[in-house]
Amino acid sequence: MIDCRYVGELSFIGDRRFDSIGQRAVLAEAQFEEVLLGGAAFIKEDDFRKIGFTDEEIAAYGSSIGFADFPQTFGEKLSIARQVFHDTRATLRVREEEDKNSAAASVGASSGDS
Amino acid sequence: MPNFSFSRLERCYLQTQSVFGTIPNSAGSATVGNTNACRFIKMELQNEVALLERPDKTGTRSMEGMTGGRRIGRWSIEMSVHGNGTPGTAPDCDPILQAIFGQAPTVGSGSVSVTSSTDATPIVVTCSGAHGVTSGAFDVVTIASHTTNTNANGTWLAYANSTTTLTLIGSAGNGDGAGSGGTASRVKVGYSFIDDISYFTLWSFRTAAGLDQRVGNTCIVQEATFNLNQDVATWSARGENLWVLRGDDFSNSDVYQKGGLGSFPIEPGAPVTNGTIIPGFTGRFVAGLAVSESSASAFAANAKYFPTVRNVTMRIATNNMMVKDTFGSYYATLTEGGVRNITLSFAVYDDDSTQVRALKQYGDAKTRVDFVVNLGTVAGNTWVFWFKNVFLAAHVLGDGQLRFDANFADSRATTSSLSVRDEFQMYIA
Predict the structure, then answer these.
(1) How far is Cα B243 from Cα A24, in angstroms, rounded to an integer?
(2) Cβ neighbours of A66 in B, within 8 Å
(3) Residue whose C-alpha is closest to residue B309's, from B279, B280, B285
(4) Among B26, B33, B379, whose Cβ lies nearest the Cβ of A34?
(5) What is the ipTM of this complex?
(6) Is the CB of residue B165 less than 8 Å from the CB of residue B124?
């Protein structure tokens, strides 16, 4: 299981709603990957902590989504968090594409396609 | 007792489709998953099968039996305009947008600190280092956390005056922003045209699971329409597709209808959807003499924000179609595309301001105008529609309400040159 935090605007996983920065979720590894590929911005708890979000910031600005509603320091942390999400997602997408290609290759091999 | 089919209990899943006629699958198992979910307002998926009448005389006035002819599917969908909410991540409706533009979006990246801004019209921001936009070029940037001159905050089409300064097109300062910080970010998703035709797979799963489930194979976009200044911004798209396969009919379906599937899948269990609605009346409408009529720097300096726009409709007719006349096939065999027709219709309250007068004059003189229409004000969910070289229709003064308005209907955007296909670009930042 992966402890993770939400850093997006609004996402649903099934009927579970995520609408606050820092909102916690515990997801199985496969679901964590699936959720990221689905565009929901989660990062692992460790990464979230390393970025340095404080509880006070989360309480004050976690639900704020405007441009000027939070101070630059919080905005910078949020940008870093979202970059972590982008990087993780990009890695997963590469792996997903490789899996697709290898599946297609194995189908081709078993059907005798050259 | 049979299950009723409540229209609220329907979910849509979208997949980009790389092979004409083949529903994305792995060894016959559909690959549709939770990651493909997309919220929508309403959707139609239907087949059309021509009826062939025997034209020979029968000696009576009665018609006898007919036979089925060529087969095609049609689809349409309407949904709220909603980005992902996280800048740089494509929205859930991305497969449809790719099918409009013919290619996957580009993802912009990079951000730099803002050191100051001018209290002027338009605002020019100065960055602490290189902002990454080529000098003399345009890009969509998002300014955040800028204090004092707070009008600079938001998503803008920006013009790079130099490697470190940006003009925010259509902006107006509200304070001296010297040393007032913030960031300028180029993180966004951008869509632009190529002449290829992309297609997607459109799934409709309904609850209860025992109901007939459907999938539209090889959907192409023929037209998309964005409507602004509603309470909730919505857009719609429609087009043709190869065939709409029904789960109930799977065993009777032929190989073309099955699209490579060995069985009809059940709905994924925990669909992931993202993004929130946009109040359709939030945003910005900016117009100016086209770059091609003047210069990039002149457009950046002189384009004006129009504060009294009543409504805007943006229509993208791709003129994509299925090839339905191939000998030897009941089904479409290819896709083909005609000339795109991108139009902008809007109404602005009539007044004696310089900018409204200019629009009327441009419409009469057929002088090209560039438009930048922002929808939304929230980072990650701000849509920027950039129309170039619009030949404005001559305006019609409407007197159907208290104030006159000037209506500019179906004004067509055109490319700057045949190689760049830049008549319309769309960004979500």
Answers:
(1) 43
(2) 377-379
(3) B285
(4) B33
(5) 0.88
(6) yes
* Average pLDDT of the residues of chain A: 86
pLDDT tens digits, one per residue of A19-55: 999 999 999 999 999 999 999 999 999 999 999 999 8
Q: What are phi and psi of B335, to 5 degrees?
A: -120, 155
User: Residue type at B213?
Assistant: Q
Structural contact between residues B176 and B119, judged by C-beta atoms closer than 8 angstroms: yes
For tokens 């299950």, what's the residue?
B3
Q: How far apart are CA A1 and CA A27, in angstroms?
A: 5
Inter-axis angle of helices A29-37 and A72-110, nearest 10: 100
Query: What pTM was computed for the model?
Result: 0.94
Give B428's Cβ-side CA count (13 Å radius): 24
Distance from CA of B287 to the nearest CA of A (A): 24
Residues 135-174 of B with CB under 8 A from A: 142-147, 150, 153-154
Best interface-test mutation with B: which of A5, A9, A17 has the largest number of B CBs within 10 A?
A9
Nearest to A9 among B37, B183, B276 (CB): B276
Is residue B12 left, alpha or beta, with left meaning phi > 0 and alpha meaning psi from -120 to 50? beta
Per-residue pLDDT averaged across B222-232, rounded? Answer: 94
Nearest to B23 by CA among B245, B198, B197, B328: B245
